[in-house]
Structures are given as C-alpha cells and as structure tokens.
Design brief:
Strand content: 25-35%
CATH topology of the largest domain: Pseudouridine synthase
Largest sheet: 10 strands, mixed
Helix content: 10-25%
CATH superfamily of the largest domain: Pseudouridine synthase
CATH architecture of the largest domain: 2-Layer Sandwich
Number of domains: 3
Order of helices and strands: EHHEEEEEHEHEEEEEEHEEHE
Length: 306
C-alpha cells in the first residue's frame, strides 16, 4: 500500500505517522515492519525515526499476520434474553467486547464462547456473534447472534435503524427539557483514542436526549440513538459542553467509581427466529445506583420538567 503525507504531517516520526494512518495495526507491529525493511521512501528502506517532510509517498508492504482466534474462557455472564437465533447479555463495566490489538483474552467474546460454544462466524474468528459493540466501561444490553443467518438479519435491522437503543447517561452541568444533536463524528486528529463531533466532517450521527432528573452540577439523561457511531454519546455530549460524568477522555472530571456513567438500558429488535418484536432491559448496575445515591445524599435532586 502507498500512503501520501501532507503538510499536517510535517515533523512527525515515520512510526508515529504510520500508527495514525493505520490504527488497525499495533505500534510494535508497524515498527517490526520498518525493521524488516517493508517501509520504503523513494525506493529505499526507511528508519522509524525519519521525520516526515509532508510531501512523501510512503510504500508499505505488510507482513503476514499470525492467525488470531478467540478462545473460550470461564467468565461469568448474565443472560437477559435468549432464543434460537440470538442472545442478549448484561454487559458489566471493565470488560472489552472482543479481543484486539494487545488484548487477547478476558473479553465478552471469550465468555460467550465458553457459554454457548458456537456463534455466528460473520464477524470473523475474533468477533464471533458480535453484531454491535459497547465501550469497555459502558454497561447494559449487548445483543449477540447465534447463527450467520441471524447475524445478517440483525445487522440489517441496525443498518435500517430499526433497533431501539435507549441509554441512561449522567452528564456534567444542567440541561433542561429535551434536544437533538445532529453532528458528524470522526476520529479526533489530535488524539486517535477518541472521536470528535467538533469538526464539519465525518459520518452522520443522530442523538436525542431528554433530561429526567437534576442533581447539583449534573443531569441524568435518557438518550435514544438514531445511529451507532463509535463513542457517539460520549463525543456528542462533549461537543455540547456537557460530557458524560467521569469520562476523562472527553474532558469530564474524574469520578470515585473509576468509570464513566453510561448504561445501555433497553434494546428493542425483531427476533430472527420468531419474527416477533423483543424489548430487553438491563437494570442500572449497583455502582451507578450508588453514584446517583451519593449525589442525592448531597442534594436530593428533582425530577426534570418535561
């Protein structure tokens, strides 16, 4: 593959430039390919410390990746719903949904393989059954496909925006009434670990919110997602100046619970097995119940006016 550097890349190390442009590969793997002479500038092998001028065409010949496959692990799972085509689990905080770069186990996928043995293969060996994802510290309803046919059906429902996705989020500051955020979301060029809705580019994204309770310095929101972009709620709320409470990546203050307050409360979909509409709900987990109780102890808060 060939990558073209531009003026915005001037002064970056070659390995940092490659990491930004190719986030699907780990830094160590990219550096390995540089050492193996697989990265060329003007026909010659380049060094990792090379500083980009902003006008180069950089050729990369990726090496073969070792095969990766998720393995079953005995990790507890709470099943909220199950039929012949799909299963919905109550995802806890702190578990990633599937293995990836630098993470080879201890994920929801590893737990699912231990519990159900066979799942849809559409997502590949690292993401069996995974139709959609929740961020690592987001809790709540996660839907999984058992068969390839069910996976395609559910993915189509998500694509057509027929899946109901309701979240609870505590955000910093006071919000009144309800509102709609319609801003595109893209990777933040200043920090590749996060997304941003502050630029005029990216994939269209739609978030509807409704204030349901006020505390001193915080508002509890019920959120309905119209799209399913990476970090959508977190990026959209941060763009309004009301980041999700505890979400330090998006500018919020740290919380004593070492996580942010975001919970997938309800997911509604049509079962591929029965054709019937299904609505699955997850109760607020104990740590978030404790969080709201701690706020209420300081200031009882009042229901928001609709």
């Amino acid at each position: 593959m060939t990558l073209s550097a531009d003026e915005a890349d001037r002064g970056k190390r070659l390995d940092a430039f490659l990491r930004e442009r190719l986030p699907e590969y780990s830094r160590s793997r990219l550096q390995q390919w540089i050492r193996e002479g697989r990265v060329h500038l003007d026909g010659a092998a380049a060094k990792a410390s090379y500083l980009i001028r902003g006008t180069e065409a950089i050729a990369l010949e990726p090496g073969a990746l070792p095969p990766l496959r998720a393995e079953p692990e005995d990790i507890p799972l709470l099943v909220l719903y199950e039929d012949a085509s799909a299963v919905a689990i109550d995802k806890p905080a702190g578990l990633a949904v599937h293995p990836g770069a630098g993470l080879h186990g201890g994920t929801i996928v590893n737990a699912l393989l231990h519990r159900f043995h066979t799942l849809s293969s559409v997502g590949g060996d690292l993401r069996p059954g995974i139709v959609h994802r929740l961020d690592r510290f987001t809790t709540g309803v996660l839907l999984v496909a058992k068969t390839d046919q069910a996976h395609r059906d559910l993915a189509d429902q998500f694509a057509r925006r027929e899946v109901e996705k309701i979240y609870l989020a505590l955000v910093e500051g006071r919000l009144e009434g309800s509102g709609r955020i319609r801003k595109p979301i893209t990777r933040d060029p200043k920090n590749r670990a996060r997304m941003t809705a502050r630029l005029e580019c990216g994939r269209p994204a739609l978030t509807d919110w409704e204030a349901i309770r006020h505390f001193s310095g915080f508002t509890l929101l019920r959120i309905r997602l119209g799209t399913g972009r990476t970090h959508q709620i977190r990026a959209h709320m941060a763009s309004t100046g009301h980041p999700v409470a505890g979400d330090r990546l998006y500018g919020a203050e740290a919380s004593p619970w070492n996580r942010y307050f975001l919970h997938a409360q309800r997911l509604g979909f049509r079962s591929p097995a029965t054709g019937e509409r299904v609505s699955v709900e997850s109760p607020l987990p104990p740590d978030l119940v404790e969080w709201t109780a701690s706020l209420a102890a300081v200031n009882p808060g009042v229901p928001a006016q609709r």
